[in-house]
Amino acid sequence: MRRDVFQAIADPTRREIINLISRQALNLNSIADNFGISRPAISKHIKILTECGLIEIKQEGRERYCIAQLATLNEVSKWVEQYKTFWTNKLDALELHLTKQNKKIKKSK
């Protein structure tokens, strides 16, 4: 099942896993050592991150290494940017309106 990237980054543990492996590839035990939850719980998080394309698993001998695939986050960045632009424009217009209203009030006093 292909999961949505938004679903993956909604969880703080998964965001921290992404943060950890964005610096260097880590095996599952190294990732689990950074959290106070069980190894199976970490494996579940890794599975979700893999299913949405944020992590790639590479087998090296007996070890499985997690490698960040951060290009997938571009989808999130583009989505957020459109709303950032929208709300920045709206808030700028509100600020301008309030400044004009404030000037009118001061003039009428």
In the CATH scheme, what's the topology name of the largest domain?
Answer: Arc Repressor Mutant, subunit A
**Uncertain parts:** none
β content, as a range? 5-15%
CATH architecture of the largest domain: Orthogonal Bundle
Distance between the termini: 66 Å
Radius of gyration equals: 22 Å
Roughly what percent helix? 55-70%
- Tell how many strands the DSSP assignment holds: 3
Report the major sheet. 3 strands, antiparallel
CATH class value of the largest domain = Mainly Alpha
CATH superfamily of the largest domain: Winged helix-like DNA-binding domain superfamily/Winged helix DNA-binding domain
- The assigned structural class equals alpha+beta
The general outline is: elongated
SSE order: HHEHHEEH
Return the average pLDDT rounded to an integer. 91
Write down the domain tally. Answer: 2
- Biggest sheet strand order reads 1-3-2
Query: What's the number of helices?
Result: 5
Descriptive account of the structure:
The protein has 109 residues and is α+β, with helices and mostly antiparallel strands. It has two domains: 67 residues, Orthogonal Bundle (Arc Repressor Mutant, subunit A); 36 residues. It contains five helices and three strands; from the N terminus they run ααβααββα. Strands 1-3-2 form a three-stranded antiparallel sheet. The longest helix has 36 residues. The relative contact order is 0.13. The mean pLDDT is 91.
